[in-house]
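User: Good morning. I'm curious how S-adenosyl-L-homocysteine would be positioned relative to this chain. Could you predict the structure with it bound?
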Amino acid sequence: MQDVYGLIDKLQETHALSKEEWVQVLESRNAAAASYLFEKARKIRETIYGKDVYIRGLIEISSYCKNNCYYCGIRRDNRNAERYRLMPEDILDCTDEGWRLGFRTFVLQGGEDGYYTDDLLCDLLGKIKSRHPRCAVTLSLGERGEASFRRLFEAGADRYLLRHETANSEHYAELHPSEQQLETRKACLAALKRIGYQVGSGFMVGSPGQTTSHLAEDLLYLKQLDPQMVGIGPFIPHHETPFGTYPAGSVELTVYLLGLIRLMLPHVLLPATTALSTLDPQGREKGILAGANVVMPNLSPAAVREKYSLYDNKLCTGEEAAESLQALRERVERIGYTVVVDRGDYR
Ligand code: SAH
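Assistant: Good morning! Here's the predicted structure, ligand included:
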């Protein structure tokens, strides 16, 4: 058996590990091995993306959701969730403001809300693209049919984010009611790739019931899917959900996983997520120093930000707010990186 350093070296050389090796590289980690990993992750990221940090303006278009994920604060059965939906005009205003601030990618995220039909979204995509022809639009609106994904792509959507949440079907069933199936998620991700989207997947770290073996399966699945983006962040409980009293995931493990993912998928677009910053005021910096190269400040109208409450205390102010871009720039510069005005496509 190789030690943790040997496994990190192997991952750097071959960009792959076996399931047993993933379990071992996770379970035998320590602070010194993490530093060793992060140095390699930064080096490889810098050969591909230099010191650039890409920004995405996150527009949270709806807090209505037909799904009932046990971890999520905007799940259908949360009667105390404040519901809102943005009208196309509101969303267009957000993109105008975002463009002015220096954003060249807009991410439209929301619960699974039937209000946003293909017709409505295609019309909206056309308007965004005609007002800002050089921007990229990312959708993160949950599961839809392949025909719908195709229409949205043809109307101008460039990228789609859909985390697989966990690649183990028993664990998936611990996190979701039975009408939600891992196979459906995977089929959506396969369809998105087929159509030609830049695809993002990912998972929560420390979700209830998660084991190291599950994490190993997540990494093997990501390797096989080979997405352009990977979003991972710690699980954070929301008090109005069935998992309200469960402990949050670990920042340390999340950051270690970011480093591993950078070595496994060297070109991947890897955000330091809001959940990471919510649990640790230095989370963003720790993520970037472990190989992350994207941050996604909140560009939603201020009046609705508090209502898109996926988990307790979710940050939407300070450097997580689009209008504080200058403060974010300064913080990123302090650790030797540069926020750039760029679509930030996959290379
Ligand atoms: N409806 C869309 C967007 C979901 S919200 C979709 O299904 O893709 C985006 C991500 O937030 C989810 O994929 C999930 O991984 C994460 N999330 C939800 N609840 C969370 C929680 N309690 N803690 C941390 N992350 C959470």
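Residues 71-72, 109, 111-112, 140, 142, 162-163, 165, 204, 233, 235-236, 238, 275, 310-311 surround S-adenosyl-L-homocysteine (CB under 6 Å). Residues 19 and 220 are 7 Å apart (CA to CA).
Let me know if you'd like a different ligand tried.
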